Amino acid sequence: MSFVLKEKGIKPTVRFVANGENHPSWKGNGASYSALHHWLKRILGTPKFCIICGKTKGRFEWANISHNYKRDIDDYMSICYSCHDMYDNARAKMWATIRSRKYEQDIGII
Ligand SMILES: [Zn+2]
How far is 69 from 78, CA to CA, in rounded Å? Predict the structure, then answer.
């Protein structure tokens, strides 16, 4: 998104950066979220392994890779619940870092 803004010569505002917090959350999204899961189960079946830790026993789910929730099977991976939590936490940290950097740029610190 920031690349697009740069190309168009639009300086992202602090307000815009703060809105990054509203990026879709894996745990939210109500109806569209469950519709997507029905679609995933229909196309891909039930996830039965974790591509991160290699477990084949336990509870698994389809994790969205891009977090854009596309109806694209290449955008999903089968992972276990604990790896999914780690994955989401890592992403949340990444977002926080990006936001604070952009904020610093906007207010002229760096
Ligand atoms: Zn795992």
Answer: 15
